[in-house]
Amino acid sequence: AQSVTQLGSHVSVSEGALVLLRCNYSSSVPPYLFWYVQYPNQGLQLLLKYTTGATLVKGINGFEAEFKKSETSFHLTKPSAHMSDAAEYFCAVSEWGSNYKLTFGKGTLLTVNP
Amino acid sequence: GAGVSQSPRYKVTKRGQDVALRCDPISGHVSLYWYRQALGQGPEFLTYFNYEAQQDKSGLPNDRFSAERPEGSISTLTIQRTEQRDSAMYRCASSSKDRELFFGEGSRLTVL
Fold first, then answer.
1. How far away is chain B from the Cα of A42, in angstroms, using its nearest Cα?
2. Residue B89: closest C-alpha in chain A
3. Does B103 sit within 8 Å of A44, measured CB to CB?
4. How far is B108 from chain A (nearest CA, A)?
5. Closest Cβ opposite residue A106 in set B42, B48, B101
6. For strand A19-26 and strand A73-78, is the pairing parallel, antiparallel, or unpaired?
7. If you ran DSSP here, which 8-state letter would residue A100 be given?
8. CA dist list (Å): B74 to A10, A16, A18, B21, B104
9. What is the pLDDT, as a whole number, of residue A27?
10. Which residue is closest to A103 within chain B, CA to CA?
11. Do B19 and B77 touch, CB atoms closer than 8 A?
12. What pLDDT, in 10s, does the model give residues A38-78?
């Protein structure tokens, strides 16, 4: 069975500050890892994903995440927060070879203060 | 269409009534998925179709829940004899085979 833990249901940063959203997972097989973002009244949108290969993955809007197998982590970062980054972020894991049966974390709400 | 379309966006029903939630995927997308998201939780997988074939329904919580996609396009998720615990956001997604999932805005179901 797989699971995802997102540390911090709510993260608040100042505009221009580093964004760090934490995600740890458990999986008995090599995982695929995802970050999704949800803006108010919109559907989930894929930010980035890790399947195989390079462990540092770059996504849209300046976000990136690094797969660390030894730490079973896939933390999401952005060097400088923008007001438009305010949203809810979900980390998800799926079994290797599958990108449909996702197990999501509970989400982290990011607020950006001016 | 331009994106995944779900209807109704909001549904309030009384306990014991049946509800049907509709999903219209992105044109040409082979695969269609249903997820459920309770308040304060992440989405949970319900079921998945390739074309009209239901490939995996392991996430459907009980036999009151069913889904169909008879012509390989629009899908309906039906919940019979609704209960208060069924209240949630129901999310549909579609994709080209084995590619990125595109999610709709969801249908929020409230069972009184």
1. 5
2. A43
3. yes
4. 11
5. B42
6. antiparallel
7. S
8. 36, 43, 42, 11, 13
9. 81
10. B44
11. no
12. 998 888 999 999 988 889 999 999 999 999 999 999 999 99
Reported as a pLDDT band with limits 50, 70 and 90, residue A97 is low
Chain B partners of A104 at a C-beta cutoff of 8 Å?
42-44
Residues in chain B, total: 112
Mean pLDDT by groups of 10 residues along chain B of 112 residues? 90 98 95 94 94 94 97 96 97 86 94 96
Best mutation site among A4, A100, A101 for testing chain B: the one with the most B CBs within 10 Å?
A100
What confidence score (pLDDT) does residue B98 get?
65
A35 with A97: CB under 8 angstroms? no
Angle at B55 between CA B3 and CA B102, to 5 degrees: 20
Query: What is the C-alpha to C-alpha distance for residues A63 and A65, in angstroms, rounded to an integer?
Result: 7
Q: A104–B43: do the CB atoms touch at under 8 Å?
A: yes
Q: Give me the pLDDT at residue A99, please.
A: 64
